[in-house]
Amino acid sequence: MMNQKTIRLNNGLEIPQIGVGTWTLRGETACRNVRLALESGFRHIDTAQGYENESEVGQGIADSGVPREVVFITSKVATDIMRLGQEAVRQSIEESLAKLKTSYIDLLLIHWPVKDCVKDTWQVMEDYVRQGKLRSIGVSNFNRHHLEELLAYAQIRPVINQIEVHPLMTQEENISFNHELGIQVEAWGPFGQGDIDVVGHPLLQSLARKYQRTVSQIVLRWIVQRNLITIPRAKPSHFAENQEVMAFTISHDDMMAISGLNQNLRSNVLNDPETFPW
Fold first, then answer.
1. Pick from 14, 7, 1, 51: which is nearest to 234 by CA?
2. Which residues are within 8 A (CB) of 132 and not within 5 positions of it... i.e. 6 or more apart?
């Protein structure tokens, strides 16, 4: 069983620092990989309405035999749903609960800051927290001004901002601002989602040899030592490797060297919270 290090959220809940993401996983593969992740010791599963795999994720959780109360489930409200208004958001949350085969979701996020739709969506999410169907709520892909606008009317503070973070996109200022507000940061795409060559970088290759670890482990360790949460994709061949990230420490100088790789380079130019097309 892996070391279940957790991060405390601003509402008192604890979230496992390393989870498993399910983006691109579909059908039986999604169900099987989620089941295997839980059997391997992971207790944090990340999905989204837009991934179109909530039913399979829910089945994988059920098939694992792991008690629901020890699994932290995250989902996200889709952008097209947000544009349809509050009733559509309500219906989508009910559908997510049914698909995930659960009476509550541990964390629901606004997936992207859809212009003129965030307030209405957030108010519905707040209502579902009061109903007990959502244990916590947060955001994803929010820049500073998006958060400032939300906090002007939010009655419930976001617990998490899930943003793209990897050695070529370190997000130092955004992370510092979130932490100052008591909002934890969750790193998606820690390896650049494969569209940019993070794992092939010579410095990371050198550090992998120095610490006798894989490049992926170096990247994940750099993330967790920054006190961030992360959700590398659920690939069974990497489960044991990801679990070992808590077993070593990167020196301060090497941490700074990795952060020095920053180019503010997104894995996909379309993944810009100011201009995203979806």
1. 51
2. 104
- Nearest CA to 140 out of 72, 83, 188 is that of 188
Q: Give every CB contact of residue 232 below 8 A, 6+ residues apart in sequence.
A: 18, 20, 21, 190, 191, 216, 220, 238, 242
At residue 2, the pLDDT reads 55
Q: Which two tokens stand for residue 172?
A: 């130092």
- C-alpha span between 137 and 96 (Å, rounded): 14
Token digits of residue 240: 């044991």
- Annotated catalytic residues are 51
Q: Can you tell me the distance from the alpha carbon of 228 to that of 226, in angstroms, rounded to the nearest whole number?
A: 5
First to last CA, the chain: 39
Task: Using pLDDT thresholds of 50, 70 and 90, give the confidence band for residue 193.
Answer: confident
Q: Please give the angle made by the CA atoms of 260, 265 and 5, to the nearest 5 degrees.
A: 65
pLDDT tops 80 at residue 195:
no
